[in-house]
Amino acid sequence: MRSLAAELSEVLTPTQVLSGAGTERAYDCDAYTVDKSAPSVVVLPTSTEEVQKIVRFCIEKNIPYTPRGAGTGLSGGAMPAMGGVVISTKKLTQILEIDIENRCLLAQSGIANKRISDAVAQYGLHFAPDPSSQTVSTLGGNIAENSGGPHTLKYGVTAQHILGVKLVHPEGEVLDIGGKVPGAPGFDFHSLIVGGEGTLGIVTEAWVKLTPLPKVVKTCLAAFTEVRHATEAVAQIIAAGVIPAALEMMDNGILHALRAAFGLEYPVGSKALLLVECDGDDQSQVEGEMQTVDRVCMSNAAINVRHAADEKERLQLWTARKKGIGAMGRLAPTIVTHDGVIPRSKLPEMLDFVYAVAERHKLGVANLFHAGDGNLHPCFYFDDREPGVIDRVVQAGEEILRRCVELGGSITGEHGVGVEKLDLMSLQFSPDDLRLQAMAKSIFNTGSLCNPCKVIPNQKGCVEHQTRWRGAAW
Amino acid sequence: MVEPTSTSELAEVIRSSKAVRIEGGNTKFAWRIPSADQDDWTEQNLFRDREGRLVHAAARAEYQAIQERREMRSAAAGAKPQTLSLAGLNGVVDYSPSDQVVTFRAGISLAEAQSVLQEYGQCLPVFSGTDTAFSTVGGCLAMNLPHLAEGRAGNWRDWVLRMTVVLADGTVATCGSRVVKNVAGYDVHKFVVGSRGTLAVVADATLRTWPSASPPTPRDIAPEELALCNWIQRVPRNQFEHALTAAGEQLVYGDALTCTLYAAVQGGPDRAPFQNSLPRYDGDWVLRAGAGHYNFQFSNSSLSLMRRAKEVFDPVGKLNPGEMGIF
User: Fold this and answer.
1) CA–CA dist A345, B2 (Å, integer)
2) Is A431 within 8 Å of chain B by CB?
3) DSSP assignment, residue B215?
4) Which residue has the higher pLDDT, B35 or A281?
5) Model confidence over B202-247: pLDDT tens digits?
6) Half-sphere exposure of A434 (CA within 13 A, CB side)
7) In whole angstroms, what is the distance from residue A29 CA to residue A73 CA?
8) Which of A31, A91, A426, B326 is deepest in the core (most CB within 10 A)?
9) Nearest CB to B236: which of A102, A148, A189?
């Protein structure tokens, strides 16, 4: 019998098919490295037609397949849970059409997020979603995970910036959904496909909306001696009617790491920083917003509010946010970061809870997150060689996500469910709620071949571990 | 007509009915596709022209033709839709001003919803004409009609965070979450927005609010003028200027941010509005009022997927039969 790789080499060309031990190791997980499952074969299609051929081949042979972009996903969405074929979008990187007049762009789904913005920067436009991974993470991956980023507070998540997609349906048909003019009458299938975690078919091309770059951008970094002062300032900034472009918070653990890694210094006594960015086209309006931010920070006992005088200083202020996670490596050999959401008015009590949980489990914790959205990313740092520590990390993570749901929030704000949080879905949703989600999935996918064992728990034939080392690990 | 006052009553009505025609405040009647059992195709529900004259004669004839076809079909199916009013599902479920998140029951009027929010200096950023006293939050979610603040503040689909729906078999289910950012599961709550009550019935919905007491309002139009509009067309940006010029006197408002024309299209030879059209452009779409089954049309590429979705959510065709014109 011929091998799967040999058969697929005939469907595509031999150079587009990878297999063997090295391939299996390289593709057995994404950036969620806790759960692994190796593919038999990885294929590298260059067009929608080739993706369609592969999908049809897999249907005919009853082989599971899983799409994969850059593999930066944090919940295991690109892990081939049932083995089979990984369909990589690595060679689907073309920009097919730039339509400046209509402020949109058509690209293949494997293009890196940032390349889209770079291609249109000269026209004063950009692709607004800006996940931290944007230099490598792909358009297709952003669509699958409905990615966020620091600027989603004002500009919205990926869903608001996708106008249309070309989708290879799990039954092997190619569907064009949406187009250049958004909001057409009829059912809005984008709502399901964007954020569908690659379980509703494979997006091969997308029309994205291009947004004018703001003419005025003002950024400040406020330092506080107490975390609670900073979290209370967050709620008050929003309550004052200001919607900043970004509103990010870093606590003492992050400051400690930044000092250790890069020698960055912040005002003496700082225990929390708020990075606030306001933008727009009207100078006086943006300045007015910034004055409000300044006033709110000062009235919440900020010890220092530093405003960026120019672009160079603005980038400097952003360093704390951009390099924070990388710097964590200095604190301990292992880091696990979580992703939960709470109503932002509950931020002060939630952070107190996070610190209490870490202390009870004898773990280090640092927080760096999208405060304006109430999207927490507590990072536990520890030495995984210490006996029993992993159980404590799992336990602590679970307690935090439970608390998020109790406070009316969500088990994930931007990393997705994937395989990581399958067993937590029942915390947030009743069996009837989950049935509704399964109905939505079945509009597209009734089989068990297209990206199996993701999003909806207890799918037929899927093995689910009950205790996971939750959180993305570095 | 039945008018449930709680989600459980609503679920029971839907579970035990063969077919329902759902209504909120009935203000968007003319934008809907008339259903088989409807005999109140009356003057006040019809299109008025720019001078305020009623234009109904031909529309009525058109409606009767549709009605006859529908009656034959529904008689064959043995199901005559019962009118289900959501006006009794009134009130606020919860409101957290500091989070800018509110949960309304579907039947609350837009005017009441706005007054609740305005007390805290917030609002829903919708500018939608004169009918806010009657139009309901549930109806707005079901229709998701374009509105004049959309370019700056988005539409109902952008604001909805969570929704409780009743499915065709009477199951009550919730999706989404009461926070502004959430990717747990499929966004069914957004998918339901704009589906005109054909997939599931909205019982309550959590929305994000706008941080000022009044919506961003265009300066140069009065709500009464907007009420004349019977044609909403969104065109590619590079065709917008042309479309504005071509609409001429029929134009009520042109929204440059979203490239949307709001127009009062004059009637044709029989004074029926659907006999005339403004110029169409490649990739554009149109919503009409008072034009019966010409009110909207879908591109062929989405038809099969729409039918598939209907089959999954409402296999017996219980919810708003005929509403989408294709099932």
Assistant:
1) 40
2) no
3) -
4) A281
5) 999 999 999 888 888 777 788 778 888 889 999 999 999 999 999 9
6) 16
7) 9
8) A31
9) A102
Q: What is the CA radius of gyration of chain B?
A: 19
Q: Which residue has better confidence, B1 or B199?
A: B199
- Max distance between CA atoms of chain A, in angstroms, equals 75
Distance, in Å, from the CA atom of A417 to the CA atom of A256, rounded to the nearest integer, reads 31
For A398, the token pair is 């679970």
Distance CA B55, CA A451 (A): 54
- Please tell me the distance in Å from B180's CA to the nearest CA on chain A: 6
Nearest CA to B204 out of B112, B138, B155 is that of B138
Which pLDDT score, from 0 to 100, does residue B165 have?
98
CA distance to partner chain A, nearest, from residue B238 (Å): 6
The confidence score (pLDDT) of residue B300 equals 72
Answer whether A368's CB lies under 8 Å from A251's CB. yes
Burial track A324-341 (b if 16+ CB lie within 10 A, e otherwise):
bbebbeebbebbbbbbbb
Q: Is the pLDDT of residue B57 over 60?
A: no
Query: Quick check: B96 and A421 CB within 8 A?
Result: no
Give the N- to C-terminal CA distance of chain A in Å, as an integer.
41
Nearest to B187 among A191, A238, A425 (CB): A191
Burial A353-371 (b: 16+ CB within 10 A, else e): bbbebbeebebbbbbbbbb
CB-based contact B81:B36 (threshold 8 Å): yes
Residue A136 has pLDDT above 70, yes or no: yes
The β-bridge partners of A125 are A212
Chain A closest CA to B80's CA: distance in Å? 24
> What kind and span of H or E run contains B93?
strand B92-96
Confirm or reject contact between A257 and chain B (CB < 8 A). Answer: no
- Whole-angstrom Cα distance, residue B177 to residue A374? 13
What is the Cα–Cα distance from A75 to A417, expressed in whole angstroms?
Answer: 6
B215: closest CA of chain A, how far (Å): 13
Which residues 121-160 in chain A show a CB within 8 A of chain B?
145-146, 148, 152, 156-157, 159-160
Residues of B in contact with A425 (CB under 8 A): 184-185
Is A181 in contact with B96 (Cβ distance < 8 A)?
no
pLDDT of residue B68 exceeding 80, the answer is no
Interface test with A, best of B28, B31, B163, B186 (most A CBs within 10 A): B186
* Residue of B231, B294, B268 lying closest to B62 (CA atoms): B294
CB A89 within 8 A of CB A78: no
R_g of chain A, CA atoms, integer Å:
23
Q: What is the rounded CA–CA span in Å between residue A174 and residue A176?
A: 7
DSSP secondary structure letter of residue A264: -
Task: Give kind and range of the element (H or E) at residue B311.
Answer: helix B300-313
Does B134 score more than 90 pLDDT? no
CA B219 to chain CA centroid, nearest Å:
25
- Amino acid, res. B220: D
Of A336-340, B26-30, B197-201, minimum mean pLDDT range: B26-30
Contact between chains at A192 and B186 (C-beta distance less than 8 A): yes
Q: ipTM of the predicted structure?
A: 0.94
Tell whether B235 lies on the interface with A, counting CB pairs under 8 A. Answer: yes
Four-residue CA torsion sign, B124, B127, B131, B133: positive
* Pairwise CB contact (< 8 Å): A177 & B234: no
- Look at residue B198 and tell me whether its pLDDT is greater than 80: yes
